[in-house]
Amino acid sequence: MAPSGSRSIKKGCQRVLYWIPVLFIALIVAWSYYAYVLQLCIESIEHTAEKVIYLLVYHVIFIMFVWAYWQTIFTRPMNPLKEFHLSYSDKELLEREDRGESQQEILRRIARDLPIYTRTNSGAIRFCDHCQLLKPDRCHHCSVCDKCILKMDHHCPWVNNCVGFSNYKFFMLFLAYSLLYCLFITATDLQYFVKFWLVGGRAHFRLREYLNGLPDTQAKFHILFLFFSASMFSVSLASLLIYHCWLVCKNRSTLEAVRAPVFCHGTDKSGFSLGFSKNVRQVFGDEVKYWPVPVFSGLGDGCSFPTCLVNLDPERPSLSPAGSNPANKIAAEGRQFPSRPLTESQSRLLTSTPSWSESDGATDRKCASNSGMTIENEA
Fold first, then answer.
1. In the prediction, which pLDDT does 7 show?
2. Any catalytic annotation for residue 145?
3. How much is the pLDDT for 97?
4. Ranges of Polar residues compositional bias (predicted)?
């Protein structure tokens, strides 16, 4: 068999295997629905009012949880715009150069027309040799997706997708609603768990009296196991949600928390932080009513991010010369990112073709003095 055919079969098998964690979560959720709705609410709870309230609240949480999970899985990660890709002539010119410094000169020339402020640890332009593009700020190459992802946070096997600019809000809501889902099940199922442990004096008497208080053996098993599984998932989900809430408040991704971004003046873990309020709005948007809904409402286009370091750098030229786009004008007036209604943010996410402002390259020349001889190629 040809090598290309073997690689295709291997990739196909890998794609199938990547869906196993998602299938596992789907089966767990399907079983929990059966156990809670049928075995607990319909078969075990006797009071009609209690049964109706539990079912109504449960289904509201369940729908929001499944909606957020679906959005996280099937929202395609955004890739850099064509402005960041090398043209055919630039590719030929780069291939003809053998020395790293000469290649960096070419990349610095291209980067002068792009809103790129982060560098490699050696001060070089961040370039993806695999995708043949200059990486926008906060963009990284995912070896699983085999492409560069805008504001990549991490590749999550539980959603079989990269979590990044386009679906980070959905991922946050998925964590929040899944935690709420587990906590609600734990709270409403608690009385049966307590009944199991508190009835009688000895273990076999407690078990006998408990079993006599429940309708049948099948319901007993599902109700008990439902409580234990929901409790355990609640602990892990709570820790993960708290961590990502901290990241949002600090305006960092998971990758940036592990390895701080590098700017011209050096490493700065808070380089993209704009303050608590603006950090949250950058992910969830300006309109609070859309925050709990799994629809995109974030700000920006994913290719450029406001940073206080840009405005504080005296050698960086103004972001808003005459005739530039309105978003840059607003940034120059002191606002770190434009205040946009939801529909405009959605439109820009899908169809944005921003025109970058001209730059005299002062900061690039400063960075060039400290640049390394190699091009970064993240995998």
1. 73
2. no
3. 80
4. 342-360, 368-379
Handedness of CA 217, 222, 227, 228 (dihedral sign): positive
**Per-residue model confidence (pLDDT) at position 9:** 83
- 10: burial class by Cβ within 10 Å (0-12, 13-18, 19+)? exposed
Cβ(255)–Cβ(153) below 8 Å: yes
192-196, 291-295, 302-306, 337-341: which range is least confident on average?
337-341
pLDDT digits (tens, 9 = 90+) for 237-282: 999 999 999 999 999 999 999 999 999 888 999 999 999 999 999 9
What are the b/e assignments for 101-137, b being 16+ CB within 10 Å? eebbebbbebbbebbbbbbbeebbbbbbeebebbbbb
Show the tokens assigned to 92: 């030929």
The average pLDDT across 45-72 equals: 95
Question: What's the pLDDT score for residue 98?
Answer: 76
Catalytic-labelled residue, pool 41, 131, 142, 156 = 156
Considering only the C-alpha atoms of the chain, give the largest distance between any 2 of them, rounded to a whole number of Å.
84
* pLDDT tier, 371 (very low <50, low <70, confident <90, very high otherwise): very low
Tokens of 239: 């820790």
CA distance 365 to 343: 39
Q: Are strands 154-156 and 147-149 parallel, antiparallel or unpaired?
A: unpaired
Q: Phi first, then psi: what are they for 267, rounded to 5°?
A: -70, 140
**Residue 270 φ then ψ, to 5°:** -110, 25
